[in-house]
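User: Fold this; tokens only.

Assistant: Input:
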Amino acid sequence: MRLRFQEVERVVRARHGGGGSPTSLLGRLKNLQRLGLPGGANVGAGAPAEYGLEQLLELLLAFEMLEAGIPPARVAVLLCGAWPRLLGALLMAWARAKGNSASARLYIAIASNSLEEPVAAGDGAIGDRSDVVLLAEDAVLAWLRGEAEEGPPSLLLIDPGRVVLGVTAEVPALAIADAGHVDGAFAKLGGERLGGSHPRMWRLPAGR
């Protein structure tokens, strides 16, 4: 699936325009571009930018983070540092929505202290470092709320299913591509990036 910038803008506006001025949303998109988002966009000198499904997903997730109050520069650091894991969450959310996965519902969990200090997303555990982006299952969140010995850590949670819906609902609705084309793009991207592997997730401790 190949998209022009104008098509990407229409999808983002449909999900996140919210009555704001067209120039305001365009300004946020341009600012994300200056910060290096989305990665992998085919932008050649003198040629129009070309975007794929992966770049559209990254921009939609960026806007979810912006609307959660994360500053643009921090959004760029978190996305660039943890993109393989985040993309895995998005692809798993699509598979779950299509009935192609029996995995539990996942949330993207970001340690709130990583939003206040210079960060570079990594593989540590919450509490070990301030620069963590992890995936958490529903059961983990319930355990954290009710049984964590020192109280639940402060987390920002983002539902990857909302991001996926921004593509599966809006792209066909805007007549950019039909639903079959969109699903084919997800399946192709999943095969290329996930294969049979799953990204690292928070799971319940043994015996819980």
